[in-house]
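Troubleshooting log. The previous structure file for this entry was overwritten by mistake, so regenerating from the original sequence record. Sequence copied from the archived sheet and checked twice against the printout by T.R.
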Amino acid sequence: MGIAVCLAAFPAFAFSPDFKAIEDDLVPNRYPDGSIRSRSVAEQAVADVKQARTKLNEISDYSTRRCYSNFFVNSCIDDVRKAKMRQEARLRKVESQAKGFIHEDKHRIELRKQAERDRRAAARHSQEAHPPRAEAPVLKSAPQSLNDQKARERTAQRQARHDEAVARATAEQAAREKKAAEKRARAEQRARRAQQNAAKQNARHAKAVADQQHDRKVREERMKERSRKQAENAKKKSQQAAVKPAIPPKANK
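Regenerated output below.
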């Protein structure tokens, strides 16, 4: 009887959340796995996720407020929260794919720029290592042996400068290649770490959803059991009242 009175106190038509609007398929279906293959599409995906997330927050907040008009308030709020979590996971998946592509594209552009800088530096060093030869001045009055000695000294100096420039260019090129390789390794490590973090986060969300579904099922079973026991007790009391003998009135003396 008490439950019937409580139910009658609530509106005849309870609020039902629009789960189709909360878990909108537009953005996830527009950007399935492997569909983002250009920078422009990736940037548009990030913008679409941002807009979809704003809409999701608005709808879920509205639905949560409306749940307070229902008899089973906690169950209604719990359903809205789970739907929002599922949609958030789908939006994060699209966002991760798009931002990963943008990061890789920036890395590719930087590698091309670095390769161009290395090419120009190598060209400069090559010019420094092989300068244009200047014509030897004509010595008007000098012994032949002295001229030969000075020519050999100049040749030796040029060869020394050439060897030094080649060694310096080789060392600098090796250092640049090592730096570029280390940069690529760090970028690849960051990308792997981002993918691992996304996978762990999705796994945590999936576990949270499963735990919440289990808890809800347990609560509903307990509520059904309480309702059944209350109905049985009410029935027993009604039967006892029906079989109880009536007390005859006392006769007047």
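The chain has one domain: 18-126+154-235. Archived copy saved in two places this time.
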